[in-house]
Write a structure and sequence with these properties.
Elements lengths: L15 E8 L2 H6 L3 E4 L3 E3 L2 E9 L10 E8 L5 E9 L2 E9 L3 E10 H6 L6 E9 L14 H15 L11
Antiparallel strand pairs: 1-9, 2-4, 3-4, 4-5, 5-8, 6-7, 6-9
Length: 172
């Protein structure tokens, strides 16, 4: 096959996406030595990303040779994401801010030997789920007479949500 990846669900306008990165003839790819394989770019809520699989040329300190899996941010801004990658029975995940034009992932996702055991028709399938984490912004403006009521509503909302509790007070 000439194509190495496909997007399994078209959710380009949503904050989450599921992508399958399928690499054909993966054992031959591993025999080539050190190189990187890059999926097609996919879009999540108008942001651009791709999956990168690193095939190392030499073994790590423990004597094993590992396959690396990374999420690459192809944007000029940092974005916080929840990311899960699955190869065979191995599942790894993170919630992290991926820097602009950079990547984050695992240099030791799976050993080459373990990869060989999960190949289907000599293809490696990297299944990923990604969610863009977006902060909710709440603006409060009030006249002097009811500002206390408005702030107590905000305090209650922050307490109930138990997340994104950082806020900035701007006074005119």
């Amino acid at each position: 096959a000439d194509e190495w990846s496909y997007i399994s669900n078209d959710t380009s306008n949503l904050v989450a996406k599921t992508v399958d990165f399928i690499i054909d003839n993966f054992e031959k790819e591993m025999e080539k030595g050190q190189h990187k394989l890059k999926s097609n770019t996919f879009t999540v809520k108008h942001t651009h990303w791709h999956i990168k699989v690193d095939i190392p040329g030499k073994a790590a300190e423990d004597g094993e040779t590992y396959i690396g899996v990374y999420l690459r941010n192809d944007n000029n801004l940092n974005f916080s994401v929840e990311f899960k990658a699955v190869i065979g029975d191995t599942v790894k995940s993170f919630a992290y801010e991926v820097e602009a034009n950079n990547g984050y992932g695992w240099s030791k996702f799976l050993t080459k030997e373990a990869c060989k055991k999960v190949l289907i028709d000599s293809k490696l399938q990297v299944h990923v789920e990604m969610k863009l984490i977006q902060e909710e912004k709440t603006e409060i403006s009030a006249a002097k007479s009811n500002i206390k009521d408005e702030t107590s509503i905000l305090d209650s909302k922050i307490f109930d949500m138990m997340s994104f509790s950082d806020f900035k007070v701007i006074c005119n």
